[in-house]
Amino acid sequence: NFMCKCVVTGGIIPTVAQQLHSENIERVVQEALERSGVDPSQLSAVATTVKPGLALSLSIGLKFSQRFVRQHNKPFIPIHHMEAHALTARMLHPIAFPFLVLLISGGHSLLAVARGVDDFLLLGYSLDESPGDILDKVARRLSLTKHPQCSTLSGGQAIELLAKSGDRMRFRFTTPMGQTHDCCFSFAGLRNQVTMMIKKKEAEEGIEQGTLLSCVNDIAAATQHTVATHLAKRTHRAILFCQANGLLPASSPTLVLSGGVASNQYIRKALTVITETTGLHLLCPPAKFCTDNGVMIAWNGVERLREGKGILPPNVDVFYEPKAPLGVDMTAEVKAAGIRLPSVRIRIPN
User: Fold this and answer.
1) Gcp-like domain location, by residue (predicted)?
2) HEC per residue, 65-110
C-alpha cells in the first residue's frame, strides 16, 4: 500500500506515510515473527531506526518498539539509517574496515569512510536536494505517469527506462559545482536547468504543462547522465583524498554503493569507470537491499550486538532525530585539500 500510494502521489507525503505505518506496523511485525517461527522470548534484541528521517514515521516505529521491548524485556538498539545502508554490504561480503561508502537515495546523498561499526568520517553530503529527489521531480515535471511505459513506475525508474532509448548529448546540462573542489553534492541548480529546458521545449512544441513532450527520452537521458557525472566526480575526489591521507587500505580498497538510487544501472556504470581508473573494487548490494528495508536495520543491530555498542536496556527513554549527520565531519579538510580532478571520460553505451 505504501509504495502504491508513493507512485500515485509522485512521492512520499509525511502524513500519509505516518498513517500507513501506524495501520500496518503491528501486523507486519507479527507476520515476520510467525513466518520465522520465532517467539519474542527468543529474540536477542530489537533494532529500530531512530534517525534521520521523517519525524512522523520515526515516531511510529520508535513508540511501537519501546512498547515491545518493555513488554518482552529485551535490549533495544537505536539505529542510524545511513549507518545501516553503509553496513549492509558486510552482510553479503566479507568486507573489512575501512572502506569508502557512497550512499544515494531519495532523501540523502553522502560520501563517508567506514572505519568501524560506529566509526565514520564524513567527506561530503548534499547541500540541498538528493539525487533521488531530482529524478522524481524531473519525472513529475515531464508528466511521465502519463507515458504508456511509465504509469506504474516511480520517477527514478521512469527516467532510467526512457533514458535507455534517449540521446544524452541532445541537451547539454552543466555538471554542478565544477569550480568547488570538495566532495559535497548539489542538485537544485541542475533541476532548475532541466525545468527551464522543459519550458523552452513546451513553448516550441506549443503544448501546455502536463502534456508529454516528444523529446522526453532525450531529457531523461541528459538528466540521468549529468546526475551520474556529478556523483562520479565527487566520488573520484573522495577516493583521491583517501589515497593521499592513507584512509583506505593499500591492497584491495573498496567502494560500497548503497541507497535506493544505487539500483540505477547507468549510475553504477559511471561509478565503475571511476573505480577502475583509481584501482578500487566497487560493491553494491542487490536492489532489494539498496532501497530502504528492514533487513539492513536488523543487520546493523547484529553488527552492534556483536561488538556490544549502543545496546540499551528496555526501560531507557530514546528520542528520534529527524536530522542527524553521520560520523565526524571532514568536509572542511576535504575542501582545504583543493584536489583537482584528472580528466576522465564517462562513456557508457545505452
Assistant:
1) 9-299
2) HHHHHHHHCCCEEEEEHHHHHHHHHHHHCCCCCCEEEEEECCCCEE
- Per-residue model confidence (pLDDT) at position 350: 65
Residues of the chain with pLDDT under 50: 1-8
pLDDT at 267: 96
Per the structure, how many domains does the chain have?
2
Alpha-carbon torsion (25, 31, 36, 38), positive or negative:
positive
CATH for 307? 3.30.420.40
H-helix or E-strand spanning residue 119? strand 119-125
Looking at residue 347, its pLDDT comes to 79
Contact 235, 255 (CB under 8 A): yes
What residue type is 242 in one-letter code?
C
In a domain, 118, yes or no: yes
**pTM of the predicted model, to two decimals?**
0.91
Residue 342 resides in a domain: no
Range of 259's domain? 93-284+329-337
Is 48:36 a contact under the CB 8 Å cutoff? no
Give the span between the Cα atoms of 112 and 88, in whole angstroms. Answer: 14
